[in-house]
Design goal:
Order of helices and strands: EHEHEEEHEEEE
Number of helices: 3
CATH architecture: 3-Layer(aba) Sandwich
Largest sheet: 6 strands, mixed
Structural class: alpha/beta
Oligomer: single chain
CATH topology: Rossmann fold
Number of strands: 9
Bound molecules: inosinic acid, magnesium ion
Length: about 180
């Protein structure tokens, strides 16, 4: 297993907690005509989605999880695999992910929710790397926790091949190869 420089804290757990409350309030206030569903993309969104869902003031919130993957090490493979969403007829869906990078994962997830019959589909991400968008990727999210530069980050659910997800801060890995 590759040994790396220690992860350097970049966004603190306290700042994340404050921002998540604001995002939860925005989702609570968002219009809906049907069931409000959070579809959280695993594995990366597991910490963010757990905190975000508990910041949403809606006793009828439906929370579902689907696995998406595209990264190997520090670079995107360009191929997104996504588990099919549930039946979403008439639902107002928030797709939740840890980070918007090339945008390919979220473009595919939004299209899958629309195909499953959602009345509306919006996107909330903890982090956004706006400079990394690729053609065909989702151009922007409806709600963003923090914009960050093009660096490989870990912690708060984000990983490098399964490592560092448990760190409470979002951290930069100085020793990692630049994202490809
Ligand atoms: P996209 O399809 O390129 O937008 O990639 C989105 C997925 O790539 C995210 O859900 C993350 O799992 C992963 N990812 C992108 N950037 C990073 C990073 O800096 N650290 C860890 N995972 C990342
Ligand atoms: Mg992910």
């Amino acid at each position: 297993m590759q040994s790396l420089m220690p992860p350097r804290p970049f966004i603190s757990a306290a700042d994340l907690a404050r921002r998540v409350q604001e995002l939860g309030a925005a989702i609570s206030a968002s219009p809906r005509t049907g069931p409000r569903v959070i579809l959280a993309l695993m594995d990366g969104a597991f910490v963010f989605a757990a905190d975000l869902a508990r910041a949403v003031n809606d006793p009828e919130l439906v929370l579902v999880f689907r696995r998406a993957s595209s990264y190997r090490g520090t670079s995107s493979t360009g191929q997104v695999s996504l588990e099919a969403p549930p039946e979403l007829a008439g639902a107002d869906v928030w797709v939740v992910d840890d980070i918007l990078d090339t945008g390919r994962t979220l473009a595919k997830a939004v299209a899958a929710c629309q195909a499953a019959g959602a009345a509306s589909v919006r996107v909330c991400v903890c982090l956004d790397k706006p400079s990394c968008r690729e053609p065909g990727g989702l151009p922007h999210a409806d709600l963003v926790g923090f914009d960050i530069p093009n660096a490989f980050v870990v912690g708060y659910g984000l990983d490098l091949d399964g490592r560092f997800r448990h760190l409470p801060d979002v951290c930069v890995l100085d020793g990692a190869a630049p994202p490809g």
